[in-house]
Amino acid sequence: MNWRRIGKLMKKELLQTLRDRRLLGVLFLAPVFQLFLFGYAVSTDVNHVATAVYDADRTAASRQLVERFMRSGYFDYRAALDHPAQIDHLLNTGKVQMVLHIPRGFANDLQRGRTAQVQSIMDGTDSTTAGIAAGYVEGVVRAYAAGISVERLVRARGVVSSVPGIDARLRVWYNPELKSVQFMVPGVLCMILLIITMMMTALAIVKEKEIGTLEQLIVTPITATELMLGKTLPFLLIGLVDLAAVLLVAAHVFHVAVAGSVLLLFAISILFLMTTLGLGIFISTISKTQHEATLTSFFFFLPFILLSGFMFPVENMPRVVQWITYAIPLRYFLEVIRGIFLKGNDLSVLWPHVLVLAAFGITIISVSAWRFQKRVG
Amino acid sequence: MSNVLTYEHAVEVRELVKRFGAFTAVDRLDFTVKRGEIFGFLGPNGAGKSTTIRMLCGLLLPTAGRGTVAGLDIIRESERIKTRIGYMSQKFSLYEDLTVEENIAFYGGIYGVSDARLAERKAWILEMANLADRRHSLTGELAVGWKQRLALGCAMVHEPEILFLDEPTGGVDPISRRNFWDLIFTVAGAGVTVMVTTHYMDEAEHCDRLAMIYGGKLIALGSPAELKAQYADAGQLLEIEADPLMRALDVLAEAVHDVAVFGTTLHAVVHAARGEAMVRTTLERAGVAVRRVEPIAPSLEDVFVRLIEQADRQREEAG
Ligand SMILES: Nc1ncnc2c1ncn2[C@@H]1O[C@H](COP(=O)(O)OP(=O)(O)OP(=O)(O)O)[C@@H](O)[C@H]1O
Ligand SMILES: [Mg+2]
């Protein structure tokens, strides 16, 4: 392996990239733009859900819960109902989007340490809003229940290992304000790394095929490995620069800082980039023109975006589809990134995902390298 | 390197075959290129010129047959061949968004030319291609003729012993072509073997020896003078101006052995004695106005056209 040769190739690639204004825009402005887009415009935050309350319990406890709802800022109090028959009408006419129903016996159940029930009836027409509002309902109710339990613990001065009615898995600790930008930043990061490294690598190689310089390179003593490294490492670098840019914007504009180790974030990103660069090479081996390479890239993007948990939570997918998501490397990376970003996870938690990512990376790079043979025909 | 300068032929090809599926692009080709000569590879579109060159440069694997370049086997030793040859592909390949100098430096780096040596080579290339004033221009802004010279320079940055040029002068004006051939002469004068493909007969005339190929097969091999002499053995060539030309062609096709359209004239081959008179009377009897009938020396084009017609006839007879 001749590193001087690889260096020359990288230098050339970077020179070409820096001279191409449009490409520069795609590489460095688009990521930041995307972050803004997801952060602001496509914000999936839902505020001011028009809410009616049907409080059949009419106790101090139930009133306290209603007050919690209204104080959360997500719900607007529109009406108090005294008969369940009114619910249908209000939702049907669109006067409210949600009805909060506190059944009789709510306070009593709480008092006795039984699981108390609260029902929220949602207008499902706008399923996204409904889904998010449902998340808020859960958040508010849980916060309320936690308050009660703690209160009871203090009163009983006892040690209770599990608190009834609270499921730790569903707590919204990691994103307590339920702000979507917090959740989007890691996702956008993954997308950017995927798009830039996979598509740009594929295009950069296929472009040389198109203009004939690849053939010219193949008659030089350069080896397939050197050629592959020289064509992919520049995009690894660019991907990492983008990663840094997105982190900076996230921290300074959206005040979303990485909870865990930034170094670990970069290290695991490089692992993921093995997969995307490998896919880029693979795409270049099956495409003759840049047009074909672009189309083929989209063929890979779609399942990545749809099945990784970036757009829709994996838990909400049908079982069979959930199995398929295990074959999507982005799924693991997203998990890792969200873990580091939001929860401050380290390797002791993330190692299984990291292993899977490494396995994907090595496999894909090997297959691509094998396909990327020096002889054209 | 045991075989540096110890090989006998720059290129040697035996029974070389390349098939793409059922289609045979190169059909049992046999020829040798002597060291230091300018060897022309002449043939119409699709004759198999590029395919042959690409096999010699290690870009394609032959289907059958064997060959050597600089004494090295084209199948087993293609990686070693690459350090010894320069190749300029049919769509000569430079990075248009890099400057002239950057292109030279890039190819130099890829060929592993040391920095010190590269500085000398760069100076030599800029001088040879007359690009010194343009060294900082983007390659994409150069006229085609300049690009071709730069491409030649880049293909020679590592001082190869053998140069393969695949239609290096496609699509440029006659002056640029002339200039380019001056470069080829200079390079060959310095001892480099040049194998060059072309469509142009005037370029073929410049070659020391020529291989004519058609349909993947070798149809003639020799120096331009030898090829013309062989042609002359078959009879006397006449140039005929007549009206209407196509009618004259039909009439003569019955009467003489070889006739073909050349621009606004016909070229016909006749048996030396009385040939001229025979052509005149045949045409006049058929009601064609004869303007001029004149014996001429055959050009390479005559040779080539006749060989192709012969090959077509043989193919038809074979079924
Ligand atoms: N990779 C390939 N797959 C299939 N057929 C091919 C391939 N490469 C070349 N051919 C065919 O082989 C034949 C010879 O092609 P080649 O490029 O060698 O011709 P050429 O003599 O260089 O012609 P030109 O003067 O047009 O450059 C053509 O009919 C071409 O279509
Ligand atoms: Mg060709």
Task: Describe, in plain words, how this protein is organized in 3D.
- The complex is a heterodimer of chains A (377) and B (319).
- Chain A is α/β, with parallel strands linked by helices and 377 residues long.
- Chain A has two domains: 49-173, abc type-2 transporter like domain (abc type-2 transporter like fold), CATH 3.40.1710.10; 179-376, no CATH class.
- Chain A contains 14 helices and four strands.
- Chain A has helices at 3-19, 21-41, 60-71, 85-92, 106-111, 127-156, 180-211, 213-218, 224-252, 262-286, 290-307, 319-325, 329-343, 347-371; strands spanning 49-55, 75-81, 98-102, 119-122.
- In chain A, strands 2-1-3-4 form a four-stranded mixed sheet, sandwiched between helices.
- In chain A, strand 1 (49-55), helix 3 and strand 2 form a beta-alpha-beta unit.
- The longest helix of chain A is centred in the middle third of the chain and has 32 residues, at 180-211.
- Chain A is elongated and about 85 Å long.
- Chain B is α/β, with parallel strands linked by helices and 319 residues long.
- Chain B has two domains: 9-222, 3-Layer(aba) Sandwich (Rossmann fold), CATH 3.40.50; 231-317, 2-Layer Sandwich (Alpha-Beta Plaits).
- Helix content of chain B is 38%, strand content 29%.
- Chain B has helices at 49-56, 78-82, 100-110, 115-128, 144-155, 174-189, 201-205, 224-233, 245-255, 275-285, 300-318, and strands spanning 9-20, 23-34, 38-42, 64-69, 72-73, 85-88, 162-166, 193-198, 209-214, 217-222, 236-243, 258-262, 265-270, 289-296.
- In chain B, strands 6-7-8-3-9-10 form a six-stranded mixed sheet, with helices on both faces. A four-stranded antiparallel sheet of chain B has the order 2-1-4-5. In chain B, strands 12-13-11-14 form a four-stranded antiparallel sheet, with helices on both faces.
- In chain B, a hairpin with a 2-residue loop joins strand 4 and strand 5.
- Classes of the chains: A alpha/beta (377), B alpha/beta (319).
- Chains A and B meet through helix 1 and helix 8 of A and helix 3 of B.
- The structure holds adenosine-5'-triphosphate and magnesium ion.
- Adenosine-5'-triphosphate binds at residues 20, 23, 25, 43, 45-51, 90 of chain B.
